[in-house]
Amino acid sequence: MNLELNEQQVMMQEAALRFFDREEVVKAARASKGGADAALWREAADMGFVAMRAPEGKGGLGMGLMEAALICEAAGRGAAPIPIADGIAACGLLGVLEGEAAAGLLEESLGAPIGFDAQPGCAQLIWDGDALHAVRPNGEKQLIGSGNAAKQFFEAALTERALLRAAWLVGAGTRAIEMASAYATERKQFDQPIGAFQGVAFPLADSITEMEGGRLLLWRTIWGISQGQADAGALSALTSWWTAKTARTAVRRALRTFGGYGLSDEYDIHLYFLAIDRVALAEGDPEDRLVLAGDRLWAGAQVALPDAGETGVEMGFTPGEQAFAAEVRRFLETAVTPEVRAQARASTDGHIPELHRKLAASGLAYPDWPKEWGGQDRSPMEVTALGRVFEEFGISRIPIGCTNMGARMTMKFGSPDMKAEILPRLADGSALGCLGFTEPGSGSDMYAARTRAVRDGDDWIISGQKMFTTGAHISDYILMLARTDPDAPKHKGITIFFFPMDLPGITIQPVDTLQDERTNITFYDEVRVPDRYRLGEVNGGLKVMAAAMEIEHGGEGYHIYHHSLMQAAVEWANSADAKGARPIDKATVRARLARVRAHMEIADLMCRRVTWAIEAGRMNRAIGPMAKMFTTEIYMEDAGDLAALAAPGTLRHETPALAKIEESHRQSIGQTIYGGTSEVHRGIIAQHHLGLPRA
Fold first, then answer.
1. What gap in Å lies between CA 248 and CA 274, rounded to an integer?
2. Rounded CA separation 481/207 (Å)
3. Which of the listed residues 75, 186, 366, 643 has the most CB atoms within 10 Å of its CB?
């Protein structure tokens, strides 16, 4: 994955943002009353935006679909009252058609709006019978082209228009949330900025995350078209559905943030409400696009796609990353015997020591570790590719994930003696680690921990208890947060340790859970821990935990389950009953599955964006929480929806696929709690991405 725009794209994007972020555009939107502003259209044409997709030889710029999407997103941010998405797609269509009629209309379109829908003052392109016609504002009808090639170009232009409208909606929805956030920072109620109230901040955090997901899905679709991928047509429909749905939700939330003032014409947020509805609903009910996507994914329906050109971004795995995944798959095909697969579980109960040691010996347990500690120096994205393969074979990565965090913190903050003792044992698979952060009374507020560590010479005496220490019963070390200065502010009086679990005074008590996964509560009765097991400075645990949370807040370890859920749902849907009927043959079932597919794609993209940001040095405080919150919340939603869709068979575990769906439903709830609850992450997003006061 590479989300870095190239120099030309950045220049074009900046020019478009400057053009559409002007008071003149706002004034035009106020005056247009839903119509197209002819003067603004001509200005946009003069900038080269309108005909940018037409070939250079016909007066255009010959730009790619990605550049057009950037222009339309900027136009959405300004709620520009011109059919820019339609115009770009229409001019691109006219540019590929031969004949004087198409060339003449392309030239005319630079001076007056053109599109595919009937709008006052706009020329309209329609497919009538077996030919393409232009209908001018005065009702005059002109033949532009005919034949199968012209029809294919026309249908491709409609697909392009849908994607460019999606880009417009991403821009408009994002801007609406930003406007609401700025207002919520200034407006006070009950002596507090209203943005400090979770009831205001959290919905805005949800919507900005959904808008970010929409942009990623749009880019993924454009890239998929450029690569000729088979699912690009379905993704086009899913992108159109998602952006229409979420932009409408975003602007409603934004307008309500303004309260009664949002209903006043004096506040521009109402312009976004009206404009977003006009664009999102122009093609009818957005839910119908799920039916289209389902038909394209599972009923063989086809759609013509535009020539996307070069995208500049890379949304898939590189050949090297794919090769590594193939290497892992070959290894597991041999190592995972039927007996091993029968023991596979998503929880720590699925940890198979013999298989783990084989993985470690092959460098596949922790392949991204430095070679000096038994790794292969693999990139984070290669590890992401590996995770997908592990899930294919049903191998639990929970023990590996917990161990990795302790090991990473040891590499970064541990003493030489500590590294020499612990890291080789973890690397060869003979030892595992678990996490001791949460306590019964503190929940996600781990810095409110009461477990005490008191200095006694070269040792620390640790007393207290930890809740949800998953894997403690199979682990050899625990990464623990303990309070070392009870008088300091809670974030400053903590220290982190990574010490053996076989020290005297440690008791492990199992805790059974809804999802049939064992976790533990662990007790520490004056456990004497040598100081060499300390990570970082005394009372400097915040720095260590910040590094640890960067690992945990990415969402990748949680999102991986979405793939298995989707696979089980498709397997169920393709299975025939006693009468030979298959659920997949129903359009309503295909639409439900298509919705899950859209969610899974976005979750996948948001998680990989975190990995890319870390590698590219583009990480910020909100990207990880966005991925973790979205992936777990949408996984829970989808698991519940699919359990209902396939009911009552899911309740009875009638087939392995149905059992998997029902188990996922129970498992998914915990995902929204582990690694910080969704509410914690919404607070981080609101504060660090939207600039709202701390909730």
1. 10
2. 33
3. 75
pLDDT of amino acid 474: 95
**Cα–Cα–Cα angle for 548, 468, 205, rounded to 5 degrees:** 55
Closest to 446 in 3D by CA, of 548, 554, 555: 548
How many whole angstroms separate alpha carbon 571 and alpha carbon 566?
9
Q: What distance in Å separates the CA atoms of residue 146 and residue 152, rounded to the nearest whole number?
A: 10
Give 673's pLDDT tier (boundaries 50, 70, 90).
Answer: confident
Tokens 């007393």: give the residue.
463
pLDDT tens digit sequence for 264-294: 888 999 999 999 999 999 999 999 999 999 9
Residue 63, CB half-sphere, CA atoms under 13 Å: how many? 22
Nearest to 214 by CA among 257, 266, 180, 177: 177
Q: Which amino acid is at 571?
A: E
Place of tokens 């084989």: 358
- Whole-model pTM: value is 0.93
Q: Which residues does 647 contact at the CB level (< 8 Å), separation at least 6?
A: none
Element (H, E) at 218: helix 198-226
pLDDT at residue 628 greater than cutoff 70: yes
Burial of 199 (0-12, 13-18, 19+ CB in 10 A): exposed
Rg, the chain, Cα only: 28
pLDDT digits (tens, 9 = 90+) for 403-427: 999 999 999 999 999 999 999 999 9
For the residues 585-605, what does the mean pLDDT come to?
A: 97
Q: Which amino acid is at 25?
A: V
Does residue 471 have a pLDDT over 60? yes
For 100-116, b/e burial (b = at least 16 CB within 10 A) is: ebbbebbeebbebbbbb
| CA separation for the pair 447, 90 (Å, rounded) | 57
pLDDT tens digit sequence for 294-343: 999 999 999 999 999 999 999 999 999 999 999 999 999 999 888 888 87
User: Residue 637's closest CA among 604, 676, 669, 673?
Assistant: 669
Tokens of 39: 């003067």
C-alpha span between 561 and 632 (Å, rounded) = 10
Q: Which two tokens stand for residue 171?
A: 């821009």
- Could you tell me which residues come within 8 angstroms of residue 664 by beta carbon, excluding any fewer than 6 positions away? 561, 564, 565, 568, 635, 639, 642, 643
In angstroms, what CA-CA distances link 559 with 554, 564, 565? Answer: 9, 10, 10
Query: What is each CA distance from 143 to 3, 89, 102, 123, 135, in whole angstroms?
Result: 42, 18, 9, 13, 9
Is the pLDDT higher at 547 or at 463?
Answer: 463
SS3 of 471-529: the string is CHHHCCEEEEEEECCCCCCCCCCEEEEEEECCCCCEEEEEEECCCCCEEEEEEEEEEEE
Q: What is the mean pLDDT of residues 551-567?
A: 77
